[in-house]
Amino acid sequence: MAGPFAALRATRGKGLRLLTGPVTSPTLIAQIARMKSRLPEMHWHSHAPAGRDTVYAGAEQALGKAAETQWVFDKASVIVALGGDGFMLHTLHATRDTNLPVYGMNCGTIGFLMNEYDADGLTQRLEKAQEEVINPLSMEAVDAMGKHHHALAINGVSLLRAGPQAAKLRISVDGKVRMEELVCDGALLSTPAGSTAYNYSAHGPILPIGSDVLALTAMAAFRPRRWRGALLPKTALVRFDVLEAAKRPVMADADGRSVKDVLWVELRSAPGVRHRILFNPGHGLEERMFREQFV
């Protein structure tokens, strides 16, 4: 593959088209962003089928007739999510206003936020499940057009370079500049629940669930050389200002929701938003974090 990639680099990726389905994984989004930074002439296309044929086919198999799904949350006591961590994040965001606990069963790859898939005895497991409550981060960002963007992130918020040159970021905490210039591929502010995801892949620390801290982690820091980040109190207001934004464009990503060409981003914990996740006894987030560190 070295030959084809060398040819693509020579043409800056001209003629290369990447086709994927809808992407919600922060890790995959970051990988594609890095690919685009190295091959700026490439194009990324996301395909989401508009048809409802599979929905109707599934309903016919389960109910004997085609039907549209209607969610009646006021009659539910718990939500069961079948998928991977990306679908779990989607479910938590989509059902935030219901205040219902979510029990996930892993049909994906990693499933850090999920329980093992087992259709037998589900009702009994739900009755015995233990609850973890997590708070997301609240993001406010302004792009180059002056548009304000707001989002919540359960795992964390990433700032990633979106061009061929490294990003330059100024970092402030609670209104005080703590780093005048960080030259890097990106930076990430992670919650305890998200500290084993992209944060851990970027060599950030694993944070115990219930700890009142956030992890600020740099990705491929060039200056200061190999700066690894910092632990911040959960109450901190963290601001990133993008320096030389026109020359060194940066995107922000909050659990798969991306904002291009950001000028600045402010992040803080949102204690008023509570996500309730159910786990089988002895297999909650705390135990999973221990297992991640002693593999």
Q: Describe it for me?
A:
- Keywords: Kinase, NAD, NADP, Transferase.
- Pfam families: NAD_kinase, NAD_kinase_C.
- It is an enzyme of class 2 (transferase).
- Its EC number is 2.7.1.23.
- One of its GO terms (molecular function) is NAD+ kinase activity.
- With 295 residues, the chain is α+β, with helices and mostly antiparallel strands.
- The protein folds into three domains: 2-46, no CATH class; 71-134 and 274-293, Rossmann fold (3-Layer(aba) Sandwich); 137-269, Sandwich (Tumour Suppressor Smad4).
- It is 21% helix and 34% strand.
- It is built from seven helices and 18 strands.
- It has helices spanning 2-10, 26-38, 53-63, 85-94, 122-128, 198-201, 285-293, and strands spanning 17-20, 43-46, 79-83, 102-106, 130-134, 137-143, 148-153, 156-161, 167-173, 176-184, 186-190, 213-219, 230-233, 238-243, 250-254, 257-259, 262-269, 275-279.
- The strands form four sheets. A six-stranded antiparallel beta sheet has the order 7-6-17-14-9-10, with no helix packed on it. Strands 13-12-11-8-15-16 form a six-stranded antiparallel beta sheet, covered by helices on one side. Strands 3-4-18-5 form a four-stranded mixed beta sheet, with helices on one face.
- Strand 3 (79-83), helix 4 (85-94) and strand 4 form a beta-alpha-beta unit.
- The two termini are 32 Å apart.
Features:
18 strands, Tumour Suppressor Smad4, Rossmann fold, alpha+beta, 6-stranded antiparallel β-sheet, 295 residues, 7 helices
